[in-house]
Design brief:
Largest sheet: 11 strands, mixed
Strand order of the largest sheet: 9-12-10-11-8-1-2-7-6-5-13
Number of helices: 43
CATH superfamily of the largest domain: Spore Coat Polysaccharide Biosynthesis Protein SpsA, Chain A
Oligomer: single chain
Number of domains: 4
Radius of gyration: 36 Å
InterPro entries: Chitin_synth (IPR004835), Nucleotide-diphossugar_trans (IPR029044)
Membrane topology: Multi-pass membrane protein
Subcellular location: Cell membrane
Strand content: 5-15%
GO molecular function: chitin synthase activity
CATH architecture of the largest domain: Alpha-Beta Complex
Distance between the termini: 72 Å
Structural class: alpha/beta
Enzyme class: transferase
Helix content: 55-70%
């Protein structure tokens, strides 16, 4: 609630504005002509112009900035004077005099409405405090304002009717349909106008799509009224009285009403009827003066600087708009900034982004993807370049945490083959990105020395990248520090947020700096520190990162943001996952974002806010060691989802950005896929149950998680649990369609195979289970393909598609095709929809059984990839770098590649570690043979930090046989309970369906058969049981809800992407001078090589020219300029 003084000021201002608007529109305007009524609305800018003059005078920035608002004041006052003259001199009456006074007073009262736009510019603490208080209580203020407007307007109408000599009966005689239609048109058009105006500003189309249309609105409205009248005016008698009873030839009622109303108001003016030049001149000049006054009072908007992504409250002062003064309110409500002689943008807070990739046994190609992506960002935001050419809003730093990077060679610690491959990859990419010279014939420059450091957790490699940004490779020794992904994440969270962020403030505190000031700065820095979590095979573009950064910068309550993940690879399993990922993002992820918030931001490409991770019960609880069976499933099998669950429970929001694309490798064979989903399925369910279990408390803390959203998640969870039974019913229907057997017999036949598979999963090894699932999946795929053909054949046989199965099939296909069409870059994925459909029994029946029965297996397995030889040379790297020219980005990721379930690896005893200590630097000597390393050491305080962190959270887990046996037994018990719950729920669903089908026609719902031409069959009906119909309608409703959410999300994704594209193009234009230099240097390079005879072989061709384009790309010139330069060089030769 606002304070008393703020509430009193709001009441007074809103009363004046409501009174002025009601008097002007209800009391005064009916006595004026159409020209006056349209143009007098522009006069409400008079007090805004006065406030601008005062603000500029107080700012003392020069007289030149005061002239325009001062001229605006003069023009508006002149308009009032000419307006009064046009009536009082030529057609004076008491009623007109009163109306003129009321109109002027009403316009001035309305102009008070935008006082907040200038309240903070007068250096008056009273106004600043009130403005701050109102901003914090904006919702309450809007409600109070609306109530006052309604009450004051009603009071003015109630007083005006008897005072004007009218009777209430005459008011009631107004045609009801016309009034309702006018109100509806005004409400809808005003709301749409406001929305489109806001969107135009956010898309950086400020001048062409906001300012100019708003300026021209009143002139256009006036033309719409007057032009049809002037066209129909007879040439022989230029007088409007002849049109008094004009009936337009058109049958449109709206045109007749509009023309008659315009003619009536014009005929009421003596200066119009008798064509008095003086009066008409006063009328026209007053209208022009008001319009010019509005233009000059809002000319500051032309110079308004908009950041790439802006909140509505940062663009407009008031949340509401004035329906009667639409274009005027939108212009005057735009935030005013004092113009200064020295132009300076609104302060841009620099955010620091730490890219943290976790690696293990990635292949050469996988490492190449992530390293090239990091070097692209280094080029995109250079640290050493002249800051006049680059934005300073983001700083990047790169970290790689490499698990199990060492091996034992003759009791000496050496970097293993995977670490060596990583060093080779970084070296090759570094060389490629370091070549600035466009001439490809000069010798390659030597690499600058980099640092290599021995650390308490293993070792560190520090690179200074070609453009000045820092990259650190943390090599983890599993005998010194705990391995696996979650513990690597804990490493970089505590290092970046606990050490790097807090250390400088702790030093300042030791220097006796003020504690409160340091806390505020630390809080601000934690909010502006982001961590981009990556996996070792993620491929992305700089645009993908910037789009995620925009989400966190725009909304301070957003703790994490993720984007669109694209699985890569070849083969049927990858094709299946491409469509699965697409549907999951198109519909499910967008529905979560729109109706609540995203439940999982995957760790392969997600941006986290430092303040969110540092919140209570997030980062600290994330360090919890699994001590119970459920912990192993929730904590270690799906650490990304658990981290998001902790953030959501603390009140942070997780968002999804569909324009931020990331690419990651997907499992390419059946075994890999099943092992991956064996981890994901139970972990997802465990975290969702945890979130729903604390739903009451979470909904109180987190405004994004409402009770309806919790209900939506409960329904989704129920649908997931009943998935196997639903698939069995689908298979049963397939049997009925294909072989026309009895429904109950078909249901029994559909249940038997999965039941047998469930029993076998308890008896057989996991590899055998997967083999059986693969065979059954193939058989089910043939069955589903036959079902589709049978449904199509049944539609032909029934001579109508208006059957339950036909409508469902056609509706599903249409919905997915429309959804894909709204994602044009991904539309080709619909071709995989058929494969996805025939694999439904495998993905939602067999895989569910396999995941639940193997829930007790909590090992991640190990990659089956050795240290593969390099399959690509430097030329291949260069080719990959060329892909940076496209603006595609990656963002969601599949965590592992080839996996094999093996017993959990035990950690070697500490005695072995002690043996290696005398030779712990052997790895440094070994790697120095591959790269020019300068050996260095950690500062003593950082060394102490790592030692303390390792001892507190990250020491390797000691082997405990009794504890392992207890956990194994507990996991089996948890598996048995989960299997029982799943079996009971699905059995209950199937048994209920069985008995309903056994009862038959008694409880079946009869649906009449309808032919495509709309006729009803007299004797034929369709029978469907109630549960099936309920499920069908429920599933269709769920899809429809997700579809609506997708439409909403697509609109705002387009707005964000257009705004991003516009700002990036502007940054390129800043380098226009650089382009001239680039073009000249390019020509000189070609002249030099040709003049030296290097290419003087008579074979110069456009193909040879491509070599120069390819090399010049690495020079740091943006892609837009590169395209221009390429055309210049081709034209030159």
């Amino acid at each position: 609630m606002p304070s008393r003084k703020s509430l009193f000021l709001v009441l007074c201002v809103e009363f004046l504005v409501a009174l002025g608007a009601a008097i002007l529109t209800i009391v005064a305007m009916p006595h004026f002509d159409i020209v006056t009524n349209v143009m007098i609305l522009n006069s409400v800018s008079i007090l805004s112009a006065v406030f601008q003059v005062v603000a500029q005078c107080l700012a003392k920035e020069g007289k030149c900035f005061i002239m325009l608002p001062a001229c605006s004041i003069f023009l508006i006052i002149t308009g009032f004077v000419l307006f009064a003259i046009s009536y009082l001199v030529f057609e004076s009456s008491l009623e007109i005099k009163i109306s003129i006074c009321l109109a002027i007073v009403g316009a001035i009262c309305v102009s008070v409405n935008w006082w907040e736009n200038y309240s903070t510019l007068f250096a008056v603490s009273f106004l600043e405090d009130i403005s701050r208080d109102i901003a914090q209580s904006r919702n309450v203020v809007c409600i109070i304002s609306s109530l006052i407007r309604i009450l004051v307007t009603s009071a003015v109408v109630a007083a005006y009717v008897p005072l004007s000599g009218q009777e209430w009966k005459s008011v009631e005689l107004v045609f009801e349909t016309v009034v309702v239609s006018l109100v509806a048109i005004q409400l809808i058009s005003s709301a749409l106008c406001h929305w489109f105006a806001v969107v135009a500003c956010k898309m950086h189309a400020l001048r062409r799509c906001f300012i100019l249309p708003m300026y021209m609105a009143s002139i256009t409205v006036l033309a719409i009224f007057l032009v049809p009248v002037m066209v129909r005016l007879p040439e022989s008698n230029q007088n409007f009285t002849c049109l008094e009873n004009f009936q337009p030839e058109s049958s449109d009622e709206w045109l007749r009403l509009m023309l008659n109303d315009a003619i009536r108001t014009l005929n009421a003016r003596d200066i119009v009827v008798h064509m008095k030049i003086g009066g008409l001149a006063c009328l026209g000049c007053s209208a022009l003066s008001w319009w010019l006054g509005l233009v000059l009072s809002t000319v500051y908007i032309w110079y308004l600087k908009i950041h790439r992504i802006e909140r509505t409250q940062d663009l407009f002062v008031r949340r509401t708009y004035e329906g009667a003064f639409m274009e005027q309110s939108m212009l005057l409500n735009t935030r005013f900034e004092i113009r200064r002689k020295i132009k300076n943008l609104r302060s841009i807070e620099t955010v620091k982004v730490f890219l943290c990739a976790t690696m293990w046994h990635e292949t050469y190609d996988e490492m190449m993807k992530i390293i090239i992506s990091m070097f692209r960002l280094d080029k995109y935001r250079p640290k050493t370049m002249d800051q006049s050419y680059v934005e300073n809003d983001v700083e990047f730093e790169f970290h790689i945490y490499f698990d199990d990077a060492f091996k034992n060679v003759d009791n000496r610690r050496h970097a293993n083959e995977y670490a060596e491959i990583l060093v080779d990859v970084i070296k090759e990419v570094y060389i490629t990105f370091s070549e600035e010279d466009p001439c490809m014939f000069k010798p390659k420059a030597a690499l600058p020395p980099q640092k290599i450091i021995n650390t308490p957790y293993g070792g560190r490699l520090e690179y200074t990248l070609p453009k000045g940004n820092l990259m650190m490779v943390h090599l983890k020794d599993k005998t010194l520090i705990r391995h696996k992904k979650r513990w690597s994440q804990i490493m970089y969270m505590y290092y970046i947020l606990g050490w790097r962020l807090n250390r400088q403030y702790f030093k300042e505190f030791e220097e006796s700096k003020e504690l409160d000031t340091l806390k505020k700065r630390l809080k601000k820095d934690s909010e502006n520190t982001y961590i981009l979590a990556l996996d070792g095979d993620t491929d992305f573009q700089p645009a993908a990162v910037m789009l995620l950064i925009d989400r966190l910068k725009l909304y301070p309550e957003v703790g994490a943001a993720c984007g669109r993940i694209h699985p890569t690879g070849t083969g049927p399993m990858v094709w299946y996952q491409k469509f699965e990922y697409a549907v999951g993002h198109w519909l499910q992820k967008t529905a979560e974002h729109v109706f609540g918030c995203v439940l999982c931001s995957p760790g392969c490409f997600s941006l986290f806010r430092g303040a969110a991770l540092m919140d209570d019960n997030v980062m600290k609880r994330y360090t919890t060691k699994a001590s119970e069976a459920s912990h192993h499933v929730q904590y270690d099998q799906g650490e990304d989802r658990w981290l998001c669950t902790l953030m959501l429970q603390q009140g942070w929001r997780v968002e999804y950005n569909a324009a931020s694309d990331a690419y990651t490798n997907a499992p390419q064979d059946f075994k890999e896929f099943y092992n991956q989903r064996r981890r994901w399925g139970p972990s997802t369910m465990a975290n969702t149950i945890d979130l729903l279990g604390s739903g009451e408390l979470t909904s109180q803390r987190n405004s994004s998680i409402s009770k309806p959203y919790i209900l939506y998640q409960i329904i989704s969870m129920a649908a997931s649990i009943l998935g196997p039974a639903t698939v069995c019913l689908m298979i049963s229907g397939s049997f009925v369609f294909i072989s026309k057997m009895d429904k109950n017999v078909a249901l029994v036949l559909a249940i038997v195979p999965p039941t047998v598979y469930l029993i076998l999963c308890f008896k057989l090894k996991s590899d055998t289970q997967i083999t059986i699932a693969a065979i059954m999946s193939t058989l089910y795929a043939f069955l589903m393909a036959g079902t589709i053909l049978s449904i199509i054949g049944d539609l032909v046989l029934q001579q109508t598609f208006l059957t339950p199965s036909g409508l469902f099939l056609i509706g599903m296909v249409a919905l997915y095709i429309i959804t894909a069409a709204l994602h044009p870059q991904e539309f080709s994925l619909v071709v995989y929809g058929f494969l996805y459909f025939i694999c439904i029994p495998s993905g939602y029946l067999l895989l569910t059984i396999y995941s639940i029965v193997n829930m007790n297996n909590v090992s991640w397995g190990t990659r089956e990839s050795g240290g593969q030889a390099k399959t690509t040379a430097v030329d291949t790297i260069k080719k990959k770098i060329m892909n940076a020219t496209c603006c595609k980005c990656p963002c969601l990721k599949t965590e592992e590649q080839s996996e094999e379930i093996i017993p959990a690896e035990t950690i070697p005893q500490r005695e072995h570690e002690d043996k290696l200590i005398p030779h712990q630097n052997a790895w440094i000597k070994h790697l120095q043979k591959k790269f020019p390393w300068d050996e260095s050491t950690l500062p003593s305080d950082e060394m102490d930090f790592w030692e303390e962190l390792r001892k507190k959270y990250l020491e390797p887990l000691e082997e405990n046989k009794e504890q392992q046996e207890k956990i194994a037994n507990d996991l089996k018990e948890l598996r048995n309970r989960a299997t029982l719950v799943f079996f009971f729920c699905n059995a209950l669903w199937l048994v209920t369906t069985f008995f309903l089908q056994a009862i038959g026609e008694t409880v079946s719902i009869k649906i009449p058969k309808v032919y495509p031409n709309g006729t009803l069959a007299t004797t034929e009906v369709f029978s469907i049981d109630p549960i099936a119909l309920m499920f069908l309608l429920g599933f269709a409703l769920l899809l429809l809800i997700q579809f609506v959410a997708m439409l909403y999300h697509r609109i705002y994704t387009v707005i964000h992407f257009v705004a991003y594209s516009d700002t990036e193009m502007k940054s390129y234009r800043k380098k226009s001078q650089q382009l001239k230099f680039v073009s000249e240097e390019w020509r000189l390079a070609v002249d030099e090589t040709v003049g030296n005879g290097v290419l003087d072989d008579g074979n110069w061709s456009p193909g040879r020219n491509k070599e120069f384009k390819r090399y010049w790309f690495r020079s740091g010139v943006p892609f837009v300029e590169l395209a221009q330069g390429s055309q210049e060089i081709e034209d030159f030769y």
